[in-house]
Amino acid sequence: MPMSIAQSRQQFSALIAAAQHQPQVITNRNAPVAVLVSADYFARTESAAKPVADSFYSQVLQLREAFAPTDNAGLDGPNPCAHQAVWQRANAFADPS
Question: What is the band of 12 on the pLDDT scale with cuts at 50, 70, 90?
């Protein structure tokens, strides 16, 4: 049940006790402005979120290393004309003239 800021000041200890069971919404003029949660709930949600982000980033780096391009397709490098035929070949569907 949402509680106004004024009510939360008056019933602070009851608000903390209720937050041990479920998150408590604090409102200002009927608009939610804060949520009070237990320390245990906060620790669980914060620790659950961090490894996913770290894990995802490390997986992206591993994929970038594993599937790094092995050629430059003629765009850079010491001999840019080496792969010129790849992007200048004739269209397979064009009429041979």
Answer: very high
